Structure formats: C-alpha cells, structure tokens
TrEMBL record:
This is DUF3859 domain-containing protein. Gene3D superfamilies: 2.60.40.2390. Residues 69-158 form the DUF3859 domain. Residues 1-19 form the signal peptide. Keywords: Signal. It comes from Seohaeicola zhoushanensis.
C-alpha cells in the first residue's frame, strides 16, 4: 500500500541530474534521500483510486530512512521510498507514480496518486508491503511529476528477503495498519 506523509515540495526548473538510479531536477532546492524504514501505523488516509488499496495512508511523522540505498527486501512490515526536503517551498498538484513488476493475481504494474510537496518539514512518499501479492521482486520506480515534468525518479531493486536479511530485521509486526 502506498504511504505518504505531510505535504512536501520543491522548486523546479529544467534539466535532470542523474546518479546511480536516481534522477532529480538539478535546478531545484530539493534535498532527497531514499531507502527503507520500518512501517508505521497510519493515522488517516485519503482517497487514491489509482492504487491497489484505493487509498493513501497518512503517517504520524516523517520517518527517517534507516537503510539507505536502492536494495529493498520484499518483507511484510517494511516500507521504502523517497524522503524530501524543499526548504519551505510548496507545489501542488504533484503526481506520485509507482511502477513495479506485476502483482500476483491482479497483474497491476502501475499506481499513482496526487499530493502536495513542500513546506517547512521533510516529507516522504513511500510504499509499504502489506499483502503477499505485493511482494514481487524486480525493479520498482517512484516518480514525482509536477506540471507533467519529473521532479525526481528513484529506482529500487526489490529482492527476496534472504538476499538482504539485515534490512528490516528488527521491524516488528505490531506497527501494521
């Protein structure tokens, strides 16, 4: 299920910058980090008809990235995504797109929702593994678009849990929403 936090934004202009599976606009004030963290229980949700769950969960805080980088094990209770800071700028509407290998059963490969990016605090747009049919290995990409132009594109490699056992090993099961 897709998870997002308090709104966040960035100042945008042209020209993407690329570095190892990550692209973002070089002319923005965007500070970006990505990776995995233990799933948090949601405090609310908003409608998101183009997602498997038909909603996006809202988190009580913007969690820090605990395991930085593009490798994420397909594990229940683990979330992964992109944490951003913009230095106070705000943008709306920003479309977050998540593409992934086909889900078991439904064959779904694309999900999206609209959010606000920006503000004084950090924000996160992330995905949480809740259901067995979501835990598919392969390349997952999270992309933020504003005015039809990419703000950032981050690719993750979701692997079998035994291929990255140190990631999420201490995430408990009592946090699930």
């Amino acid at each position: 299920m897709i998870r997002r936090l308090a709104p966040l934004c960035l100042a945008l202009l042209p020209l993407p910058l690329s570095a190892g599976g990550v692209e973002h606009r070089a002319d923005t004030l965007l500070k970006l980090e990505f990776g995995a963290f233990c799933q948090l229980a949601s405090v609310d949700s908003v409608e998101a008809p183009d997602t498997l769950a038909q909603r996006v969960d809202l988190l009580p805080v913007t969690p820090p990235i605990r395991w930085h980088g593009p490798v994420v094990p397909a594990k229940a209770g683990l979330s992964f995504g992109v944490r951003t800071e913009t230095g106070g700028l705000q943008m709306y509407p920003v479309t977050i797109e998540v593409t992934h290998p086909p889900f078991l059963g439904s064959g779904m490969t694309h999900q999206s929702y609209v959010t606000t990016l920006g503000g004084d605090d950090a924000s996160i747009n992330a995905y949480s593994f809740d259901l067995p049919e979501e835990m598919v290995t392969g390349t997952w990409t999270i992309r933020a678009l504003f005015g039809g132009e990419p703000l950032y594109v981050v690719s993750f490699e979701v692997v079998r849990p035994e291929d990255a056992p140190w990631i999420g090993q201490d995430c408990g099961a009592d946090y699930l929403s």
